[in-house]
Amino acid sequence: MKITCVIFDLDGTLVDTLEDIAASMNRALAFRGYPARPPEDYAALVGWGIRRLAFLALPEGARDEETAALLAADAAGFYAEKPLIHSRPYPGIAAVVAELKGRKIKTAVLTNKPDPVAALVIHGLFSPGSFDLVLGETPDLPRKPDPASTWEILSRLDRIPRDTLFVGDSEIDMETAHAARCYALGVSWGYRDRAVLEAAGAGRIIESPEELLPLLDIRSR
Question: Does 138 have pLDDT greater than 80?
C-alpha cells in the first residue's frame, strides 16, 4: 500500500511553540494571581487543548473547571496577540512538507489548538499552500484523540485511513491514529519521550523529518 495522505500534529511536531505557549499561559496565571511555571513544565502539559492545559497549569489546590475556563480564555487571548515570537518550524520540516507536495501527496494539520490560532501559526511560518487543510479545535468536532476530526480531514481530502500517515509527538497523536485506523508515526524531537510514544503504540519513531520520506511506501502494518 502506498501513502497518499500525511496528517501532521502541530505543536512539537511541525513547530516548536513551547515558549510562546508558556509565555501566554504564564501571563494569564499572573493576571489571575497565580504563580507562573517554568517554560519546560509545559512540555508535559500540552496536547489536550487549551482548557486542559489551563487546568493543569493551575496550582493543584486551585484546579476547578470554572477557574480553568477563565484562565484558558485569558491565555487564548494573549496567545492570539503574539503567537509567533519564539515559535519556529523544526529543522528540515519545511523541506519535507514541500517534497510531499511535489509528490502530489495530500497534507493536513490537525491540532487541538483553537482553529483560528492554528491558522495564524501555519500561515505565519509556512509558505502559502504548504498544506491542503489546517484544522484546529472547533465547536462542532471533538478534540483528539477522538477520530472524528481525522475522518473529517480525510473526507474533505478524499483519502482513506489505511493510506494515511498520522505524524505526531505525543500519546494523544498515537491514540488518534489508532482510533482513526491510520498509521501511527511518532517523532522524537517533540515534547514527549520516546517511551511515551512506544507505550502509546507508535508504529515507528523517526529521529528527523527526512526519515518520513522513505516510509511513504509502507508494506506491512
Answer: yes
Grid coordinates representing 65 are 473547571
Taking the C-alpha atoms of residue 93 and residue 115, their distance in angstroms, rounded to an integer, is 21
Residues 6+ apart with CB under 8 A from 195: none
3-state SS, residue 201: coil
Write down all domains in the chain, each with its CATH number in brackets.
5-16+88-216 (3.40.50.1000), 18-81 (1.10.150)
Start-to-end CA span in the chain (Å) = 10
pLDDT grade, residue 187 (50/70/90)? Answer: very high
Residue 135's DSSP bridge partners are 110
Residue pLDDT, tens place only, 25-65: 999 999 999 999 999 999 999 988 899 999 999 999 999 99
The helix, strand and coil proportions of the chain, stated in percent and rounded to the nearest 5, come to: 50, 15, 35
Give the H or E element holding residue 124. Answer: helix 115-125
pTM of the predicted model as reported, rounded to 2 decimal places:
0.93
Judged by DSSP in three states, 35 sits in: coil
